[in-house]
Amino acid sequence: MKIFTIGYLGWKKQSLIEILKKNGIKTLVDIRRSPKSKNPDWDKLNILTSCRLNGMEYVSFTNLGLEYKDWHNTEWRTAYKKYAEKNIELTKQQLSKLTQPIALMCKEKKHINCHRAILAEVLKNHNCDIIHIKQEVDDSTTSSRMLDDWC
Fold it and tell me: Each residue of 72-91: pLDDT tens digit?
């Protein structure tokens, strides 16, 4: 199974939708514990609507999220990795039922600063191909070009 990941921070919603479409994404999987944001563009209902208007499915798997308060715990990476490994078969089963290909979405711009990198690593160790979608930044603008970054 090929799985993309993306963080919405720094993207305009339509640019993010366009890069997902460019990469053939059929289902956007929101892996935030609480799928809401101070920016209403990134609230669950608004993302769901944008995905549907652009021919994509949207699902929220809050069970794959991380509580905000846990980010202050220095051991969160270890704890989340144990959680992801313990639940990997269920996670793969849930993901395999979705229209492929899929993209896991969370907030953080850089996957290395986000729990989606840990989840991606665990999925890679269980025979999934992982591609992180990143923004390419130049001096004046942020473009929406995909950069392959195999986990």
Answer: 666 888 888 999 999 999 99
Give the span between the Cα atoms of 96 and 149, in whole angstroms. Answer: 22
* Residue ranges making up the domain that contains 121: 2-143
- pTM as predicted: 0.86
Distance CA 111, CA 92 (A): 20
Count: domains in the chain:
1
30-61 burial, b at 16+ Cβ within 10 Å, e below that, comes to bbbbebebeeeebebeebbebbeeeebebbbb
CA separation for the pair 103, 2 (Å, rounded):
9
CB 122 within 8 A of CB 88: yes
Residue 30 located in a structural domain: yes
Judge whether 148 lies within some domain. no
pLDDT of residue 112: 85
Secondary structure letter of residue 103 according to DSSP: E
In a domain, 151, yes or no: no
Domain membership of residue 81 (yes or no) is yes
